[in-house]
Specification:
heterodimer, A: 678 residues, alpha/beta, Rossmann fold, B: 94 residues, alpha+beta, SH3 type barrels, five-stranded antiparallel β-sheet, 4 helices, 30% helix
């Protein structure tokens, strides 16, 4: 590899949920997303850091259990290691779960790249009575072993030192040799000879041995790459059949068995247990007795969700008043400061009204993200996937789709991206198409504004019901798409249940800060632009001052647009302001609220906005409006992500079209049924 | 193995028709993996990577509310699997 003499590439690799992302963040000072469930890193990230005069390019690869897998991220990980020749591989292992973690390690050391081994979460392992002889482990694996508690930063500088030292002296790396059964060794040696003849002078003994093992394991891509060497492939097949006939097991199974035997004997030498390994997570067991209980498990899940939305609403109301008062005071200052002019009106009735109407929802969004990160970091989300897999499966959704869908409560675009963890294209497409119906945090301001204006004490419950509706529709759409999309095979559900972990203050605050930043960026961008646009559209063309305010509005560009679209929404009971808000919400759903704020700019403060809303609508229509906003058209960025992830505009268009029809129909039903009940 | 005897009736019924599989374990019951039966290659590789190889001890922890999937303890960690996939894992008792 050609590079600057003191630039070294190090790739982080390990099982999902072993703390790779935390370590990456600690090593680089960057902040990725951290959770306590498998597969947080859906795409790779890299970052350069200075370390004692050298530059380390640290790459975080997606978590994987094996290099032989067929998941897209498993291939991506293997290809990165194989073709990009990192100077050092940083193999992160969950110290409390070494037996399974070492399976990947064995595959890594056989590949021959110099490795640093990181025993992460060593504190958790110790507290469960596990002690590891790192010197002996280092001797057996041929590279440095570092113990870390990455969340607390313990051992992280030592990892940097180890990477640096190994990069500069790669010759100090001594790859251990894993011995296989005698018949298997004979087959490996035979295939290795053929490989060496076919690629003379290119591969050293270690590499040709690695290739021989991979071919015997049936690595389909490697077999394909070597497919022009017909003699080699024929020899590999013959050797495999021969072994299978003798041992009653296929080659891949024999190799895996030998690796696990090696691991077992290695652990016997380096690991001491003071308690039986299956018994060490007493707390996890006790908590699971409750959370995964056959009868109370699901009600608890529903209760936790209800609590989350209730808290989002009620706790959020307190800081909301402060922000509201602050914004009103600020508006007053601007009002007094700028002399009456167009600029004054634009600032006060356009920008300040739009920003003020939206920014008050910051506390609600922060609280929702706080609860979601608590659920994911403690390990409860993985439990929720376990509890609901059977149900989701009957709707054509994979249990693994649950985590992306729950991420959808934060942001649909992220949810669509997170479906990358689903292996089968078909299951993935269904999840992508269902994701936009999950109510993202951008819809929350709309719900809170309307539920607060119309339903008083019941507001929290109304918001919860809307979320339940969103889940129902997501499921319904999955069933629909399941029938529509070409039939295919279901993917197996294999998921590790991590032990419960206490969420750390640093990563919780990082999650919360990230969501706040994201929201504020929207307020500073699309909301300001949307508010200014609405203001201009309602001001122009200029009308004679003698005209009444409502007549002036009607002849404005906004009034004209409204006149064109209002008939579509009239059967739902929506007025022209509602129609306008819906149109502007196509950009991003928070804009719905800021549009209302600009349209009702004469009613100061969020109380005024609420009053003018409740004057213009009946409660059933308000519910209908919320249902419409919940379901109609994913925002622009989600549409773009669907196009990218599903691979064609056809799917993005389908998602857009279906959502409009669904939103209109359900809102219509709500209006009619609501009208009959009231 | 007191637990094994308690569940003997269930596993006996299963062994009458075919070999014992992971899906036949009762809660708290342990078995030793004998191998992975006829199933597609991708699933086989995935199961192997999770440590399901000949000789691994595996115990049924609990069953999800709707009877499926289930969680198992093996090699000191917990894995959840659907029953239809568990059926391809062949077991014997200690």
């Amino acid at each position: 590899m050609t590079h600057r003499p003191n630039l070294f590439t190090a790739m982080l690799i390990g099982n999902p949920n072993c703390g790779k992302t935390v370590l990456f963040n600690r090593l680089t000072g960057d902040h990725g997303t951290v959770a306590n469930y498998a597969r947080v890193t859906v795409a790779r990230r890299s970052c350069q850091v200075k370390h004692r005069g050298a530059v380390l390019d640290i790459v975080d690869l997606p978590g994987l259990y094996t290099l032989n897998g067929r998941l897209p991220e498993e291939r991506a990980g293997r290809d990165a290691l194989h073709f990009e020749h990192p100077d050092v591989v940083i193999n992160v292992l969950d110290a409390g779960n070494l037996h399974r973690s070492l399976f990947l390690t064995i595959q890594l050391v056989e590949m021959g790249r110099p490795c640093v081994f990181v025993l992460n979460m060593i504190d958790e392992a110790r507290s469960h009575g596990i002690t590891i002889d790192t010197a002996a482990l280092s001797a057996a694996l041929g590279g440095p072993v570092v113990e870390t508690v990455a969340v607390d930063g313990i051992g992280v500088p030592e990892v940097g030192d180890a990477i640096h030292a190994l990069s500069e002296r790669p010759e100090s790396w001594r790859a251990p040799l894993i011995h296989y059964d005698a018949d298997l060794e004979a087959a490996i040696a035979h295939v290795q000879t053929i490989i060496a003849e076919l690629h003379p002078g290119i591969l050293d003994a270690g590499q040709s041995r690695w290739m021989a093992i991979k071919l015997l394991e049936g690595d389909s891509e490697l077999l394909e790459r070597e497919s022009e060497h017909k003699a080699l492939i024929a020899e590999v097949h013959a050797a495999c059949q021969d072994l299978e006939a003798h041992h009653g097991e296929d080659c891949a199974t024999m190799i895996a068995h030998a690796r696990f035997s090696f691991i077992e004997s290695l652990l016997g030498k380096v690991r001491t247990l003071t308690s039986s390994p299956n018994r060490w997570s007493q707390l996890t067991r006790q908590l699971d007795n409750v959370f995964l209980h056959r009868f109370v498990g699901l009600p608890i899940l529903a209760g936790l969700m209800w609590l989350m939305f209730q808290a989002t609403f009620t706790l959020g109301a307190i800081p909301t008043t402060w922000i509201d008062n602050g914004m009103q005071a600020l508006t007053k200052v601007v009002d007094d400061l700028i002399p009456p002019s167009m600029v004054h009106d634009l600032m006060v009735n356009g920008v300040m009204a739009g920003v003020g109407g939206t920014i008050v929802f910051l506390p609600n969004i922060v609280i929702l993200f706080f609860f979601m990160s608590v659920l994911s970091e403690t390990g409860y989300l993985a439990r929720a996937a376990f509890l609901l897999d059977r149900l989701m499966n009957s709707f054509g959704l994979h249990g693994k789709a649950l985590i992306p869908l729950i991420m959808g409560f934060g942001c649909n675009a992220t949810a669509v991206m997170a479906t990358r963890t689903i292996e089968s294209q078909r299951s993935r497409l269904i999840a992508i198409l269902a994701a936009p119906y999950v109510s993202c945090s951008a819809r929350l301001p709309v719900f809170i504004l309307f539920a607060g204006a119309f339903f008083g004490d019941w507001a929290g419950t109304v918001v919860f019901a809307l979320y339940a509706t969103s889940i129902g529709v997501a499921i319904g759409s999955a069933i629909l798409f399941d029938r529509m999309v070409v039939a295919g095979k279901d993917e197996p559900f294999l998921m590790e249940l991590p032990p419960y972990r206490r969420p750390t203050a640093s990563s919780l605050s990082h999650h919360v800060w990230d969501s706040a930043q994201d929201f504020l960026r929207k307020v500073g961008g699309v909301i300001i632009i949307g508010s200014i646009a609405i203001w201009f559209l309602q001001q122009y063309p200029t009308a004679p001052a003698s005209m009444s305010a409502s007549d002036r509005l009607q002849q404005s560009y906004l009034g004209q647009t409204a006149a064109a679209v209002t008939p579509v929404f009239a059967p739902l009971g929506f007025g022209w302001k509602d129609s306008i808000a819906i149109l502007t919400g196509l950009l991003s759903k928070e804009v719905v609220v800021s549009s209302y704020a600009v349209l009702n700019a004469q009613d100061k403060g969020s109380d005024g906005l609420r009053k003018s809303l409740s004057a213009g609508m009946t409660p059933p229509v308000a519910i209908s409006f919320m249902v419409f906003v919940l379901l109609y058209a994913p925002c622009l960025s989600t549409v773009a992500v669907i196009r990218r992830e599903a691979g064609s505009w056809r799917w993005a268009g389908l998602s857009f079209g279906v959502s409009l029809v669904l939103a209109w129909s359900l809102a219509f039903v709500t209006t009619i049924v609501g009208g009959l009940l009231v | 193995m007191a637990g094994a005897h308690k569940k003997a009736a269930i596993s006996h019924a299963a062994s009458m028709t075919s070999a014992l599989t992971l899906a036949d374990l009762g809660t708290g019951q342990k078995g030793i993996v004998v191998g992975i039966g006829k199933t597609d290659d991708t699933l086989k590789r995935r199961l192997t990577a999770f440590g399901i190889v000949r000789g691994t001890e595996i115990e049924l922890d609990r069953t999800a509310p709707m009877g499926n999937p289930r969680t198992y303890s093996l090699l000191g960690y917990q894995l959840s699997l659907r029953n239809e996939d568990a059926r391809s894992i062949l077991l014997r008792f200690e």
